[in-house]
Amino acid sequence: MTDSEEILLQAADWGRSGLGVALATVVSTWGSAPRPAGSQLAVNERGEFVGSLSGGCIEAAVVREALDAIGDGKPRLLDYGVTHDRAWEVGLACGGTIQVFVERIE
């Protein structure tokens, strides 16, 4: 079973158990990005999640946005990134961006 299948199965299990669920998907990347487009993260209303989009502060921000999407039902298109100059300042080889789509699923 692939990671994507496991993520979607867990999301479906949460939904069947009555929990609100959101799915976040990396829709595009540029430059340095730890996970490719198509990577997914499922989140339930308790803040539990499965999968990975990026790690660190970006993933935490996406979980918060997913919880908001579960609450209000509104999808979100989110952009996260760091410029090349800022990346160099913090010791990274180059900058990059990721764009993430978050939606509540039924």
Could you characterize the architecture of this molecule?
The protein has helices at about 5-15, 55-70, 85-90, and strands at about 20-30, 40-45, 50, 75-80, 95-105. The chain is of the alpha+beta class and about 110 residues long. The protein has one domain. β2 and β3 (about 50) form a beta hairpin. The longest helix has 17 residues, at about 55-70.
Give the arrangement of secondary structure elements.
Blueprint: H1 3-16, E1 21-31, E2 40-44, E3 49-51, H2 56-72, E4 76-82, H3 84-89, E5 96-105
Antiparallel strand pairs: 1-2, 1-5, 2-3, 4-5
Q: Give the CA-based shape.
A: globular
Distance between the termini: 23 Å
Following the backbone from N to C, one meets helices and strands in this order, namely HEEEHEHE
- Name the beta content range: 25-35%
Structural class call reads alpha+beta
Biggest sheet details: 5 strands, antiparallel
Mean pLDDT figure: 87
How many beta strands in the DSSP annotation?
Answer: 5
Helix content: 25-40%
Identify low-pLDDT runs: none
Q: Give me the Rg, rounded.
A: 14 Å
Helix segment count? 3
Output the strand order for the largest sheet.
3-2-1-5-4
Number of domains: 1
